[in-house]
Amino acid sequence: MRTENEELTYAQYLRLDLLLSAQRPRTDPELHDELLFIVQHHTSELWFKLIIHELRWACARLRGDDLRAALKAIARVKHVQHQLFEQWAVLETLTPDEFIAFRHVLKQSSGFQSAQYRVVEFMLGNKNAELLPVFDEDPEGQALLRTALEEPSLYDEFLRYLARAGHPVPAEVLDRDVRAPHTEHAGITALFAGIYRGPHEHWQLWETCEELVDLEESFQLWRFRHMKAVERIIGSNRGTGGSSGVEFLRAALDSRFFPEILAVRTELAHS
Predict the structure, then answer these.
(1) In this structure, are residues 192 and 212 in contact, taking their beta carbons and an 8 Å threshold?
(2) Distances (CA, A) of 103 to 2, 17, 89, 147, 226
(3) Are 205 and 162 contacting, i.e. CB atoms less than 8 angstroms apart?
(4) Model confidence pLDDT, tens digit, residues 80-102
(5) Where are the alpha helices (DSSP H) in 64-202?
(6) How far, in Å, CA of 111 to CA of 125, rounded?
(7) Sign for the pseudo-dihedral over CA of 205, 216, 149, 170
(8) Would you call 227 helix, strand, or coil by DSSP?
(9) Residues 38-48: pLDDT tens digits?
(10) How far apart are CA 97 and CA 118, in angstroms?
(11) Mapping DSSP to helix (H, G, I), strand (E, B) and coil, where does residue 153 land?
(12) If you ran DSSP here, which 8-state letter would residue 107 be given?
């Protein structure tokens, strides 16, 4: 056990011995470009870890009616999303022939199997219990995912916050099974319409709605960039792990986390 006055180096604090020893290309002899692929996915997983950490904090702060602290965490998540978006440019330096040269060592591994990515989606509300068996061989990841499935999403917590603050959130929304994805509700759209029609009277709630729109848009942009990177490298071929590749990623672009905050735009335009 370390004492308070014991020396601590940069490498020791960051556990660089563990971190930098985790990049182990499987090609033999080692191909130059495989390290890029591994580092790209390691950094993504580290950013996902931070996003999960911040979303948990935001949910906890909403439960404690501390909206300002929740907004701070959401703002941090948005900056992390920017990093995730920009790093696709690095992977896109990988040409099709370079990827094909080591693709065989991936076997059935796939980004589809990223438990942390799925946890982020669940925490934002895109829940699907049928994904749990995908992680039967990853008990720790499956446990994280199950927790995210059974707990209220960020959006659920915001709607509960609104209800405690006296806003007319329909009872069926508050009492719904949080293990299921949220579905658009006209009563919530009407509630948000009232907030958007009087932003000066509901400034912090209006700001929260806009922050959530930013969060969703950033996630969609990341998905789109992911799709384009895959398309650039493997075209319309099937992805690793048996996914449909680009088509699977394109379909994901249609999913929404906070439907009423987007739907209110249409209502306001016609009022």
Answers:
(1) no
(2) 44, 27, 19, 33, 17
(3) yes
(4) 999 999 999 999 999 999 999 99
(5) 67-86, 88-91, 96-103, 115-124, 139-150, 154-164, 171-174, 186-197
(6) 20
(7) positive
(8) helix
(9) 999 999 999 99
(10) 30
(11) coil
(12) T
Amino acid at 271: S
Q: Do 195 and 265 touch, CB atoms closer than 8 A?
A: no
Angle at 168 between CA 167 and CA 169, to 5 degrees: 100
Which residue's entry shows tokens 């971190």? 19
CA distances, 85 to each of 126, 157, 175, 192 (Å): 20, 27, 36, 29
Count the residues in the chain.
271
Identify whether 181 is preceded by a cis peptide bond (ω within 30 of 0). Answer: no
| Separation between Cα atoms, residue 223 and residue 90, nearest integer Å | 16
Q: Which two tokens stand for residue 8?
A: 């601590």
Tally: H helices and E strands in the chain: 14, 0
**CB neighbourhood size of 97 (10 A):** 9
Give the model confidence (pLDDT) of 171-220 as tens digits. 999 999 999 999 999 999 999 999 999 999 999 999 999 999 999 999 99
